[in-house]
Every structure is written in C-alpha cells, then in structure tokens.
C-alpha cells in the first residue's frame, strides 16, 4: 500500500529533540516552534499558493518570496523573479543562486529538465516563521527558516542543504522511495548524495578534495569542523556535550532498528541513511576524479530504475547492474560499486563476500604475482554475477506486475 508522502526537512528529529533539552530557554523555544511547524506542514503536504506577477511555469524558472517571518505563504512578498535584479537581502540571493545551481547541475550533468524532468518551476520562501531551525520541501516548493542564531544560522547559507531538499523532489518523480525503514533511508541518502554532488560540481572538486559533509555551514556556527552528517565517516560528523555523538551507522552490523513512527524517525530513516551514504562515498573515491561523472551517473540511473519499496540489497543490485551497463561488465567502475557495498556489509544476492578483493588489491598496487590472472577471473565472476542480477531484477519485476 502506498503511503502519503511526508514533508521533507533537513534537520533530523533526534537533533531537534536534543535542542528541547538545552539550558538556553530561547534555544528550547525555537526547537519547540520548529517541531510544531514541522508537524503542521506534515499535515499540509499539499500547501499551495499562486502569486500574481510570479515567473511563468516551465524550464525551471526561479521565484523567491519573503515570508517576513510569517508562516502563511499566501502573504509572502515577491522578492526576486528569474529575470529580476539582485535583492538587497542576502537570504533571497543565496536561495536564488542555490536553486539555480541545483537546476543547472541536473540539466548539465544528467540532462534532466528541473526537479520533475518537465521544467518544474522552482519557488523558494525565505524568512519562513520566527527562528525556525529547518529547511523544508513540501512537494512543490522550498521553505527556509532563519535559524535561532545560536545552534543554527540562516538555512539559505548551505548549498548542499538546498540541493538535498530539492532532490527529494527528484526522488518523488523517479523511484518514489517510500519514506520509512530502508526505502526511507535510501530516500534520505539520495538527497545527501546529490546534495553533496551539487556542492562538489559548483566548486569543481574531485572526490578526494570534497569534504563530504552535509550542513556544516549552517549548524552550530560556534563549533568548527562539525556537520549534520558525514558521508565519508557516518557516526563521526560531530561529538560535543550539547548533542552527544553522531548516531549514524556506517555498516549493516550497526543498523539501528526503530519503530516506524514519527518519534521513531519512520524506522530510522535519518540514522540508517549513513550506510548507503558510505557506499556512495567509497564508490566515488575508488573510481576517482569527479564524483558526479561515473559514480553520480550510476546512482542517478539506479534511482530512475528503482521501485518505491526497494531496500538496501535491491538498490545495491541495481547500482551493480547499472555500472555494468554504463561502463562494462568487470570494469573498474563496477568493481568499485561491488567492493563499496561489501564494505558496508550490504550483500549483492549470489555474490561471495570476498569476490571484490582482487580488484581492491590491484587498485592499491599490491596485487603481486598473478594479479592479471586474478583480474581476468574477477571479470568472469562479475559477468556471471551481472547476468544473475539482471535475471533477479526481471523476476522481481514480474512478481510485482502480478501482485
């Protein structure tokens, strides 16, 4: 049964819960207000508004509105349309630029026409509510809180946060991953992956040069070097007295089992997204170069080919298959995908645990005697495995079609 799509927001509930325990009364109040706003928006997923003079739909045209710290979108003031002048308000310009960078990334890298693939307009609402510690995607538009000025700065200040939220719209219009349990963690992971890639693309950073952090520019402005999440080291994004230690797992043996409720983060979607996040990071650095090229293409094509209820093993199998289709069976790219999923302990069905070791040794220059023969054997194993994965995908599709 299909579930209603939730309001998507960048700040995990476990961080907002920590803010409720703050010794600072203003921080507690801001956290409470944010939770109340989030709950209201979750119940109003279909919030819509039309504005006279706004940019016409099509080709991903941007329009930014100023809520002036109110929460009623129909009262927001037009601040900057696609063809309008730069605003005197930095928040307006930051939102406008980030919307454009995300749109241009998807168009130039993946030939995707805006978020829905059909030229969806990009509307953003800045100064949403009073000291709201979150940024939201409500299914059609972006809402940006100003933050409380202590634990969060203005949410328009992070490109990867904005790209993260917009990517929920891409997922809505492709795989439609159900927002709970493993499919929900994949939903969150896709947003982290492509949010990070937008930032890397804008800076022209290689996989090795990137910091792989999410939200470092807007969270805890008084603490340097931390972030909401780390794709490179899930579980190591932060560790301080106020928030404790980053709870994200980086492998299946550390998978966090939570109830499929709001209080349980819908089965831990913001927690367990660390596992596929780490798999993408490992894939990208093992391939090398710009992560949006090979690794990003594999993940994007896999997102388009996935189904709403797919779990980690399903998606891992799809990425393996797509890597073979895009770069060749037994290619370094496909081997990188396989070894990455094995390192985070997500098995590919029918694959022995050590099948990627030969490739890993060769990549590190430690293959020694028999290295070429080992790689030839690995290519043969990968070819056979690719056929198995393709066959399983067809069987699953057939079962779903008769379900």
TrEMBL record:
InterPro entries found in the cross-reference section: Metalloprotease_M4 (IPR052759), Peptidase_M4 (IPR023612), Peptidase_M4/M1_CTD_sf (IPR027268), Peptidase_M4_C_domain (IPR001570), Peptidase_M4_domain (IPR013856)
Main location class: secreted
EC number(s) from the headed UniProt entry: 3.4.24.-
Peptidase M4 C-terminal domain ranges (all copies): 175-346
Cofactor section: Zn(2+)
Domain Peptidase M4 per the UniProt entry, residue ranges: 98-172
The organism's place on the tree of life at top rank: Bacteria
Enzymatic class: hydrolase
Gene3D superfamilies linked to this entry: 3.10.170.10, Neutral Protease Domain 2 (1.10.390.10)
Swiss-Prot/TrEMBL keywords: Hydrolase, Metal-binding, Metalloprotease, Plasmid, Protease, Secreted, Zinc
Compartment(s) of residence: Secreted
Purpose: Extracellular zinc metalloprotease.
PANTHER family to which the protein is assigned, alphabetical: NEUTRAL METALLOPROTEINASE (PTHR43579:SF1), PTHR43579
Family: Belongs to the peptidase M4 family.
Protein known as: Neutral metalloproteinase
Naturally occurring in which organism (per UniProt): Streptomyces albidocamelliae
């Amino acid at each position: 049964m299909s579930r209603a799509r939730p309001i998507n927001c960048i700040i995990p509930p476990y961080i907002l819960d920590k803010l409720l325990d703050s010794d600072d009364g203003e921080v507690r109040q801001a956290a409470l207000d944010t939770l109340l706003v989030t709950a209201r928006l979750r119940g109003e997923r279909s919030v819509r508004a039309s504005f006279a003079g706004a940019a016409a739909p099509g080709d991903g045209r941007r329009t930014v509105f100023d809520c002036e710290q109110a929460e009623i979108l129909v009262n927001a003031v037009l601040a900057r349309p696609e063809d309008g002048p730069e605003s005197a308000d930095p928040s307006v310009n930051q939102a406008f630029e980030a919307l454009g960078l995300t749109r241009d990334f998807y168009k130039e890298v993946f030939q995707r026409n805006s978020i829905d693939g059909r030229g969806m307009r990009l509307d953003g609402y800045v100064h949403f509510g009073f000291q709201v510690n979150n940024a939201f995607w409500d299914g059609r538009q972006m809402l940006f809180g100003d933050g409380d000025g202590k634990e969060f700065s203005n949410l328009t200040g992070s490109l990867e946060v904005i790209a993260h939220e917009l990517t929920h719209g891409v997922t809505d219009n492709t795989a439609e991953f159900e927002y709970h349990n493993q499919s929900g963690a994949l939903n969150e992971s896709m947003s982290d992956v492509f949010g990070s890639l937008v930032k890397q693309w804008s800076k022209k950073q290689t996989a090795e040069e990137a910091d792989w952090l999410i939200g470092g520019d807007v969270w805890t402005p008084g603490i340097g070097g931390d972030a909401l999440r780390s794709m490179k080291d899930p579980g190591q994004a932060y560790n301080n007295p106020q928030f404790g230690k980053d709870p994200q797992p980086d492998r299946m043996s550390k998978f966090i089992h939570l109830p499929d409720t709001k209080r349980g983060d819908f089965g831990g979607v913001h927690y367990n997204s660390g596992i596929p996040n780490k798999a993408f990071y490992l894939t990208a650095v093992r391939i090398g170069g710009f992560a949006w090229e090979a690794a990003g293409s594999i993940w994007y094509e896999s997102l388009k080919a996935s189904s709403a209820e797919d779990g980690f093993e399903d998606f891992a199998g799809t990425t393996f298959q797509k890597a073979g289709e895009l770069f060749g069976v037994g290619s370094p790219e496909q081997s990188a995908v396989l070894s990455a999923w094995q390192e985070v302990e997500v098995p590919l069905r029918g694959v022995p645990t050590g099948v990627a070791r030969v490739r890993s040794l060769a990549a590190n220059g430690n293959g020694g005697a028999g290295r070429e023969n080992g790689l030839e054997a690995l290519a043969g194993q990968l070819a056979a495995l690719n056929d198995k994965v393709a066959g399983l995908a067809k069987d699953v599709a057939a079962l779903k079609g008769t379900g």
